[in-house]
Design a protein that fits this description.
By secondary structure, the protein is an alpha/beta fold. Helix content is 42%, strand content 15%. Strands 1-6-5-2-4-3 form a 6-stranded mixed sheet, sandwiched between helices. Helix 3 (93-110) packs parallel to helix 4 (130-147) and helix 4 (130-147) crosses helix 5. The longest helix has 18 residues, at 93-110. It is globular, with a radius of gyration of 15 Å. The structure holds ligand AR6. Ligand AR6 is lined by residues 11-13, 23-25, 31-35, 37, 83, 119-126, 157, 159-160, 163.
Length: 180
């Protein structure tokens, strides 16, 4: 396993990391799933911060990411990214999902933070098949960390058993490869 990647099974809102990534929607105005959980745990300051971003930058397109304060969370900031809605796999879904991870990682670094927790973006309401999404998440993050030696720690926070075992398996396989 990449020494700077860890899998945690649990609730992302309770993680004590620099940055928590939210699987948002383009409106940035909250929603269900992990988005709803993050807004509830962060309190009203998070929605107010999202409204300011909306006024300044408009909607957040799929694959893009924006950063806000973290309200009452233990984290110092929240990155809101929008994953792809699954439409069968031939609508650029893989590329958009990769971009969601990449643009989030870039924002972590650009803001001087070192540790980040990701949920399994797009694998809930947006319907992305979990195994395929986990492969993209692990590959994209691993390659980024290899290219950015000063980046700190990345946590994949899996809410459900299926995602937790998929991520564990992928990272263990990766650790078995020569040169990993
Ligand atoms: N901590 C970690 N992961 C969680 C948590 C939690 N507290 N709660 C759910 N998950 P989803 P999407 C997992 O649906 O598919 C929202 O309404 C969940 O098990 O939250 O990207 C937004 O506003 C799943 O594996 O996000 C958008 O409209 C993963 O988080 C839309 O849903 C992502 O599920 C985005 O859909």
């Amino acid at each position: 396993m990449h020494s700077r990647i860890a899998v945690i099974q649990g609730d992302i809102t309770t993680q004590a990391v620099d940055v928590i990534v939210n699987a948002a929607n383009p409106s940035l105005m909250g929603g269900g799933g992990v988005d709803g959980a993050i807004h509830r745990a962060a309190g009203p300051a998070l929605l107010e911060a999202c409204k300011v971003v909306r006024q300044q930058m408009g909607e957040c397109s799929p694959g893009h990411a924006v950063i806000t304060l973290a309200g009452e969370l233990l984290a110092k900031a929240v990155i809101h990214t929008v994953g792809p809605v699954w439409h069968g796999g031939e609508h650029n879904e893989a590329r958009i999902l990769e971009d969601a991870y990449l643009n989030s990682l870039k924002l972590v670094e650009a803001n001087g933070y070192r540790s980040v927790a990701f949920p399994a973006i797009s694998t809930g309401v947006y319907g992305y098949p979990k195994a395929a999404a986990a492969e993209i998440a692990v590959k994209t993050v691993s390659e980024y960390l290899t290219r950015h030696p000063s980046f700190g720690q990345v946590y994949f926070v899996c809410y459900d058993n299926e995602n937790a075992s998929l991520y564990q398996r992928l990272l263990t396989q990766q650790g078995d490869e020569p040169g990993a």
